């Protein structure tokens, strides 16, 4: 296992270094003076120019410049936003929790509803119900996320006026950020209207969550169904049936824990796709997360935000993907057997 973890760590480091090389190379393609592109300072003083030269080794060779650039970025020094003239790291600290809250809620919804429906699709004797679930799954997988988000906004936001379609909370509520997760901050607040603010934040979260949850939801149903069909044919399931266990006991105790394992691995594979869908969703619903922040920076040619946002988002996806893969190998005996057999 230690050799496997070492290989995953090497993969993480190698991928991160390659990512830094790409971003560093692209930074040379941005128009404008080099000091401006790296720091966002449009009119630096002579002292600032000297500091930038030293920090980024601009008077040295390309290798030294890359090492200095990597050191600055990995230490959290992303410069200031060209548009707002605020430190990029400060803006990032506001955007990351918003994206995390939306994505985690979407994944939670996908798991809570997708796994039971996958089990029903696999075990139900009602062919009409099975076909209905599979048809809904195929439809949800095929629907473009931008079309779904706009349609939900038109139906539930504009026509029916049931749910808000932009932002995280009504501007009338002043909730002091503590964790950055608005639902949690509302509950931690000492304001007299904290429960009203909590419900308002929850209502703002419904439409973007539903939009983002559709893809993982359909994938969870399909993978859970396929896994359940395969697992229910295994000998240990037949042994459990011979001991007189009920179908519910067999599913909950023996089949479902094994059926969830491929679901975990699929989420690791899908993280990049989910991140892409999250960007689109945030733009549609004006959700102040990393996605809408990056898209706004691209339109405004905010080069420091583009570099910092892409780097942090990409490293997070790489790290999370490898972490999920490691967890999958730890909880899946067959994967461990294949892993040790390969050595």
UniProtKB/TrEMBL annotation:
Tell me what topology the record assigns in the membrane.
Multi-pass membrane protein
Q: Which keywords fit this entry according to its UniProt record? A: Cell membrane, Membrane, Transmembrane, Transmembrane helix, Transport
Its localization reads: Cell membrane
The ABC transmembrane type-1 domain is annotated at: 96-328
Q: Which InterPro entries match?
A: MetI-like (IPR000515), MetI-like_sf (IPR035906)
Q: Name one Pfam family in it.
A: BPD_transp_1
What PROSITE patterns does this protein's entry cite?
ABC_TM1
Where is the major localization of this protein? membrane
Q: Which GO terms describe its molecular function?
A: dipeptide transmembrane transporter activity
Q: Which Gene3D superfamilies match?
A: MetI-like
UniProt entry tagged with the keyword Transferase: no
What GO terms fall under cellular component here? Answer: plasma membrane
What residues form the membrane-spanning segments?
A: 9-30, 102-121, 133-156, 205-224, 263-285, 305-327
Family according to the record: Belongs to the binding-protein-dependent transport system permease family. OppBC subfamily.
Q: Which PANTHER family match?
A: DIPEPTIDE TRANSPORT SYSTEM PERMEASE PROTEIN DPPB-RELATED
Q: Which protein are we looking at?
A: Antimicrobial peptide ABC transporter permease SapB
- Origin species: Paraferrimonas haliotis
Q: What is the lineage of its organism?
A: Bacteria, Pseudomonadati, Pseudomonadota, Gammaproteobacteria, Alteromonadales
């Amino acid at each position: 296992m230690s050799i496997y973890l070492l290989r995953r760590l090497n993969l993480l480091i190698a991928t991160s270094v390659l990512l830094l090389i790409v971003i560093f190379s692209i930074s040379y393609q941005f128009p404008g003076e080099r000091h401006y592109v790296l720091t966002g300072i449009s009119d630096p003083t002579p002292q600032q120019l000297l500091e930038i030269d030293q920090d980024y080794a601009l008077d040295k060779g390309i290798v030294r410049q890359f090492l200095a650039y990597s050191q600055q970025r990995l230490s959290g020094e992303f410069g200031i936003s060209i548009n707002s003239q605020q430190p990029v790291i400060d803006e990032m600290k506001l955007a990351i929790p918003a994206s995390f809250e939306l994505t985690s809620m979407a994944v939670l919804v996908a798991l809570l509803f997708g796994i039971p429906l996958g089990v029903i699709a696999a075990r139900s004797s009602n062919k009409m119900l099975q076909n209905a679930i599979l048809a809904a799954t195929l439809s949800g997988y095929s629907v473009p996320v931008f079309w779904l988000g706009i349609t939900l906004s038109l139906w539930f936001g504009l026509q029916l006026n049931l749910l808000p379609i932009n932002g995280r909370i009504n501007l009338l509520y002043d909730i002091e950020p503590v964790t950055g997760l608005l639902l949690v901050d509302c509950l931690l607040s000492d304001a007299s209207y904290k429960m009203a603010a909590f419900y308002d934040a929850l209502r703002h979260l419904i439409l973007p969550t539903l939009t983002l949850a559709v893809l993982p939801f359909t994938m969870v149903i399909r993978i859970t169904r396929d896994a359940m069909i395969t697992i229910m044919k295994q000998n240990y399931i037949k042994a459990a049936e011979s001991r007189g266990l009920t179908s519910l006991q067999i599913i909950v105790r023996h089949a479902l824990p094994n059926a969830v394992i491929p679901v975990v691995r699929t989420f690791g594979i899908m993280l990049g796709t989910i991140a892409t869908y999250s960007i689109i969703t945030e733009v549609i619903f004006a959700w102040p997360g990393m996605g809408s922040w990056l898209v706004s920076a691209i339109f405004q040619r905010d080069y420091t935000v583009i570099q910092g946002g892409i780097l942090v988002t990409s490293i997070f996806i790489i790290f999370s993907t490898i972490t999920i893969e490691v967890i999958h190998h730890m909880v899946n005996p067959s994967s461990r057997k294949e892993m040790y057999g390969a050595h």
